[in-house]
Write a structure and sequence with these properties.
With 127 residues, the chain is α/β, with parallel strands linked by helices. Helix content is 37%, strand content 25%. It has one domain: Rossmann fold, CATH 3.40.50. The chain has a six-stranded mixed β-sheet with strand order 2-3-4-1-5-6, with helices on both faces. Helix 2 packs across helix 4 and helix 3 runs parallel beside helix 4.
């Protein structure tokens, strides 16, 4: 499994498209990942939005991510844990839930790449 993380609109998806290629990848969200076509890399984005809009526990989210992960799975994650801590309790809870799930993904990933305004930096593994 591979993880690509960065801020909003920092070029994460463009990086993955160049790295994998559109024709060999299935780009989706957690909600649509089950419809992936065999033989293609599974590229999942919008994890923080999925956590925000679904009513599942952290354990259920962790299990769902673990079930769908494989050697050809790429998670594109939006960094939401940096900066000012939100005043709204729900936004703080989302930030915390994402942080814990992201830690799991980072631990289990073969490679982790940070994208900073289009520049890729491998922070775990070798690309």
């Amino acid at each position: 499994m591979h993880v690509v993380i960065g801020g909003a609109y920092n070029g994460k998806t463009d990086y993955v498209r160049r790295w994998i290629g559109d024709s060999s990848a299935y780009f989706c969200t957690m909600d649509t990942a089950a419809t992936a076509k065999p033989g293609k890399s599974l590229v999942i984005s919008g994890l923080h939005e999925w956590l925000m809009t679904t009513d599942i526990t952290e354990i259920e989210a962790s299990n769902a991510v673990r079930e769908i992960s494989g050697p050809n799975t790429v998670f594109i994650l939006t960094e939401i844990g940096r900066g000012i801590v939100p005043l709204d309790a729900q936004q703080r809870e989302l930030r915390d839930r994402c942080g814990r799930l992201y830690q799991q993904l980072f631990t289990e990933a073969t490679t982790v790449t940070r994208i900073w305004y289009g520049i890729a930096q491998t922070i775990k593994g070798v690309k």
